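Side project, low priority. Logging it here so it doesn't get lost.
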Amino acid sequence: MSHANQSRPMTSRRSGPLTGEAQIPGDKSISHRALILGALSVGETRITGLLEGEDVLDTAKAMAAFGAKVERHGRGEWSVNGVGVGGFSEPEGVIDCGNSGTGVRLIMGAMATTPITATFTGDASLSRRPMARVTDPLSEFGAQITSREGGRLPITIQGVQDPMPVRYRTPVASAQIKSAILLAGLNAPGKTVVIESEPTRDHSERMLAGFGAEIHSETTPDGHVVTLTGRPELRAQPVAVPRDPSSAAFPVAAALIVPGSEIRVPGISRNPTRDGLYITLREMGADLVFENDREEGGEPVADLIVRHGKLKGVSVPAERAASMIDEFPILSVIAAFAEGRTVMNGVAELRVKESDRIDAMARGLEANGVTVEETPDSMTVHGMEKVPGGGTAVTHLDHRIAMSFMVLGMASEAPVTVDDGSPIATSFPDFTALMRGLGADLG
């Protein structure tokens, strides 16, 4: 796992036109959920297209530790024989979630309303991230939680024998908080309700409904309200994992900023709660064409054609942040090559991701000659005709920071280096091979 690896510097150099087809790995968010819901179901769930990055593999190990039978049958092909809602058994060892905030938060939710005890840990990056935003609502179900100061890992949860359903308003827009509460609500009687100020990724709602849960969402004057009826019998389902739009953002960005490029990215998710980046890129003047719209695994997908072209800076509204929160690092790279300023608003959540992503991107861009301004909740990038490059970016064990600066180097005047490329394996293990296949010079 990445948190045990030695650091591995990587360098990216100016590339010629990028061409070809980018076969993006499976969606990380959906991969986590497929394993967890498969483990909470009765029968065998067959999964195709599962992302086999380290984050997801850690979740697979965790489901096995809680008593599910988890098997790999081939590349991306897995099966999970579940134990049913409330059927988790107590794990013998500590649950190590590596670098995955999604994995640890969702798994804590899934076990908190079962009368077992489990301890969760992770790598140095994950151990710095705030967990109280999830453990606070889980305690409302009746779970007993012990953590380090600040609600940080390692965390021990003593699940509750007789959980109570909760009605909870999320303090920040976070699909992880919402999903953890909904997973906990599966084994609580009655109705568990989550209220959001604005809708976040709805993968959990879609997948829960597919597995047989009674769940519905509505927009009310009080906010976006999701209601789950507890104690369903989830039925095992085949899950075809669509390709990850957050991973696709990296070859898409590279094609937009490397002159002469044209690539095809098949099977990209068009989920409206994940499309903020593509809306923004079109506002910037990006040449993007979606074709062959269809549905895979309960999610809308399409094939994307991307061509290099002139881009202009824009102001991204705060209300769009939730639909593209993972894509702001790579957007800041695209913005460096756009005419004028790009202002990203409502991005305070970036400061508590795998790293403080606003600070990491600002410092790395400045090291490569780009002017950046930041506030606690915004980031402004001043575009330029030619990005000098030549600097080294510190990744802080963050896969998206590493990949973003690898893309920067493909179009900058001088090579760009990151201090550690090993975290890329947590979410996109084929990143280097895929980009080289399109014509990029990195390694």
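Brief comment: The chain has twelve helices and 24 strands.
Revisit when time allows.
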